[in-house]
Amino acid sequence: MNTPSTILSAIPRRLHLQPDHPLAITRQLIESRFLDYKHHNTLFPVVTVKQNFDSLGFPADHVGRSRTDTYYLNKDTVLRTHTSAHQADIFRKNESAGYLISADVYRRDAIDRSHYPVFHQMEGARTWDRESLGQSKSLEEAIWADVAKIPTHSINVGDPNPTFHPERNPLQECHSAGEVEAIAAHLKRSLEDVVVAIFNAASSAAAAAGEISASQDEPLKVRWVEAYFPFTSPSWELEIFWQDDWLEVLGCGIIKQDIMDNAGVPNRLGWAFGLGLERIAMLLYSIPDIRLFWSTDPRFLSQFSSGEPIRRFVPFSKYPACFKDVSFWLRSTSSAAGGLSRNASSPVDFHENDVMEVAREVCGDLVEDVRLVDEFTHPKTGRKSFCYRTNYRSLERTLTNEETNELHERFRQQLVDKLGVELR
Ligand code: PHE
C-alpha cells in the first residue's frame, strides 16, 4: 500500500459530476458531440491490476506498473491510472456501439501548475460488428457511411504520416488496410469535431472578454502524430497549437483485437480515445493552475454555470509566492562506495515522485511546484545529493512567513523520516 489518506480523500469529490463545476461543463460539452454514445460517469476508481494493466496488454515490466508511478491499495488492487481500465468490462457488456467514460484517475507525478495526482479523463470508443451488416454492404462501406454523418469543419489539420506504417505504427493482422483507413477516418473526424466545438466555445469566451483579435489572428491549428499504446495499433495523438507550442490533448487508436476477443466480442472492431479533462478545461476557460479545480472558494466556483455561455476565468488576485530550497544526501550505500557493487539498494531506490508525495502530504494545495535545481555526486564517495526548490503559494490568501517556515521545516523532517535522506 503506497496510497496516502490525502489521496483517498479525493475519491468522494467526483468533480466531473458536480453541477456547474468547470470539469463537469467541459464533460457535457464533449458529450454533446457524441449523441448516441452510452455514458458511464460513476465507475468506482478502485480496480484490479488485471483491469488497469493486464487486460490491456501492458508488459510485466512496464514503468506504469511501478510503485513510484501508481497508487496501490494492495498487490492486486490499484487506483485506476486511466479510464482504459474499464475498456474490457464495457466491451464485454456489449450494450452499445459507442460509449464514453468520464472519471477521476490517479497517478504519482511531478508537482507543477499542470500536474496533480488526481485528475479526470474521458475515454470514448466506437465499434462495429462484422456479422450484423446486411449482405449488400461491406464493413468498409458501412463505416464510411457513418463517417459521412459527422459534421464537417474547415480547420487546418496537419496529418503528415500515413494512417499506418509497417514498423512505426503497424496494422493488426486481422484488419485490412481499407478497414483501418475507414475506422481511422471516423476516429479522426469525430475528435476534430470535438476540438472545433471546444475552440468555438473558447473563442466566444475570449470575444466576450474583449479579446476578439487574439482568436481572429490565430486560427485553430491541430495535427495528428504517431503514438504508441499497448492496447491500440495503429495509434495516434492529437496536438493543438496553443500559446506558441504544440500541446498534446489526447491519445487514441485502433483497439487491439485481443481485447475484443478476451471480452467475448470477437466480431467487433473499432477505435478508442482518451483525453485529459483538466487540460481541455484549462484551455477553454484560461484556468492558470490545476489546483484551482479542487478549490471550494466561491470566488472560483461562482464563475462557472452550465446554463450560460463559456466565460473566461477571471483570476482573483495572485497571492505572493515564497520559495525555499532543501538539499539532501541520499541514503549512503554502505559498501558500494567503490562503485563496484551493483546490488546496493540505494540510491537506486530513490524516485523523485516520492519527494513530490511528501510535499503533497505536508503542504496539501499550498505547494505550487517542486523542482530539482541542483544535483551533485561526491567525486570520492560517489554519494549523490539533490537540491529541490519548493514554491509555496496559496490560491486563496497570503501565507505568513511563519506558516511557510513551518511548512518547510515539516517537509524537511518528513523527507528524513519517510525517505531516509540526510539533510545538508
Ligand atoms: N489511456 C491512455 C492514457 O491514459 C489514452 C488512450 C485511451 C489511448 C484509449 C488510446 C486509446 O494515456
TrEMBL record:
<dbReference type="InterPro" id="IPR004530">
    <property type="entry name" value="Phe-tRNA-synth_IIc_mito"/>
</dbReference>
<comment type="function">
    <text>Is responsible for the charging of tRNA(Phe) with phenylalanine in mitochondrial translation.</text>
</comment>
<dbReference type="GO" id="GO:0000049">
    <property type="term" value="F:tRNA binding"/>
</dbReference>
<dbReference type="Pfam" id="PF01409">
    <property type="entry name" value="tRNA-synt_2d"/>
</dbReference>
<keyword id="KW-0067">ATP-binding</keyword>
<keyword id="KW-0496">Mitochondrion</keyword>
<dbReference type="InterPro" id="IPR005121">
    <property type="entry name" value="Fdx_antiC-bd"/>
</dbReference>
<keyword id="KW-0436">Ligase</keyword>
<dbReference type="GO" id="GO:0006432">
    <property type="term" value="P:phenylalanyl-tRNA aminoacylation"/>
</dbReference>
<dbReference type="GO" id="GO:0005759">
    <property type="term" value="C:mitochondrial matrix"/>
</dbReference>
<keyword id="KW-0547">Nucleotide-binding</keyword>
<dbReference type="GO" id="GO:0005524">
    <property type="term" value="F:ATP binding"/>
</dbReference>
<dbReference type="Pfam" id="PF03147">
    <property type="entry name" value="FDX-ACB"/>
</dbReference>
<keyword id="KW-0809">Transit peptide</keyword>
<feature type="domain" description="FDX-ACB">
    <location>
        <begin position="317"/>
        <end position="424"/>
    </location>
</feature>
<dbReference type="GO" id="GO:0004826">
    <property type="term" value="F:phenylalanine-tRNA ligase activity"/>
</dbReference>
<protein>
    <recommendedName>
        <fullName>Phenylalanine--tRNA ligase, mitochondrial</fullName>
        <ecNumber>6.1.1.20</ecNumber>
    </recommendedName>
</protein>
<dbReference type="InterPro" id="IPR036690">
    <property type="entry name" value="Fdx_antiC-bd_sf"/>
</dbReference>
<dbReference type="InterPro" id="IPR045864">
    <property type="entry name" value="aa-tRNA-synth_II/BPL/LPL"/>
</dbReference>
<comment type="similarity">
    <text>Belongs to the class-II aminoacyl-tRNA synthetase family.</text>
</comment>
<keyword id="KW-0648">Protein biosynthesis</keyword>
<feature type="domain" description="Aminoacyl-transfer RNA synthetases class-II family profile">
    <location>
        <begin position="103"/>
        <end position="315"/>
    </location>
</feature>
<dbReference type="InterPro" id="IPR006195">
    <property type="entry name" value="aa-tRNA-synth_II"/>
</dbReference>
<keyword id="KW-0030">Aminoacyl-tRNA synthetase</keyword>
<dbReference type="InterPro" id="IPR002319">
    <property type="entry name" value="Phenylalanyl-tRNA_Synthase"/>
</dbReference>
